Amino acid sequence: MEQLPEMDRPRVIVSVNASVDGRIAFRRNEPLMREETERAWTALWPASVQGVEAARSEEIMRVHAPQAMLEGSGSLVSDLAGSPERHDVHFDGPAEVLYSDFLPASVRERPGHEKWFTVVDSRGRVHWTMKSQGEYDVLVLVARATPRSYLAYLRAENISYLVAGEERVDLREALRRMRDKLGVNCVVSTAGGGLNGALLRAGLVDAVDLLVCPMAIGGLGTPSIFDGAQLEEHATPTRLKMLSAHVEADGLLRLRYEVDRP
């Protein structure tokens, strides 16, 4: 195992599947978590993908033992879905209490709990129908601008959340809180381009693990591995150091990179 530097936050591994042109969806505002879209996407991948995906997951678990997965709300709710759902939940207490971290012991100490399914949702868009599954429990990352009604809803549903940032989630601070309050030392981001792009621009990506399908999608604005803000003038791209490359007979590629920091 390569020697990793000491950090004040969890290590972040971006682990996604993409086309050869880096696209991670067919078009904007069509999350792959929609059943019909997921079926169409899966049908295009070579037969070897299941085995390679399983090997990737096993290797990441064995080498890095991540305690959290990371997703953006856009992976769960389309931007075309309109305004966030209103949650008329009564909260009997000072409003400021809502803007403190909520980490109920009943969740952290749940038999079988080992990991967090973490979603960045400063706008309070996701209505949760499942709060835990197997070893995972939901953890929502919110900001001080998140609607009070949504925070009251999360508390009423006993869903854990961390408050980091003002208008939007401060990703670096949120990761620090995950480490300090929950003991999370490694996070695997399976998110879309918006969140992965924000992580990249904030200098929070440490490794990239890609499965590349032999197909091209194209299209201006089609979601890619890293979207978000453009590279600023005079800024330099994030340099990567290749760790390994593997190709299957049916054209599937697995590419592993470490961010090459000075």
UniProtKB/TrEMBL annotation:
It comes from the Bacteria. The keyword Oxidoreductase applies. SUPFAM superfamilies: Dihydrofolate reductase-like (SSF53597). Pathway: Cofactor biosynthesis; riboflavin biosynthesis. Residues 10-245 form the Bacterial bifunctional deaminase-reductase C-terminal domain. Keywords: NADP, Oxidoreductase. InterPro entries: DHFR-like_dom_sf, RibDG_C, Riboflavin_Biosynth_HTPR. This is Bacterial bifunctional deaminase-reductase C-terminal domain-containing protein. It comes from Devosia nitrariae.
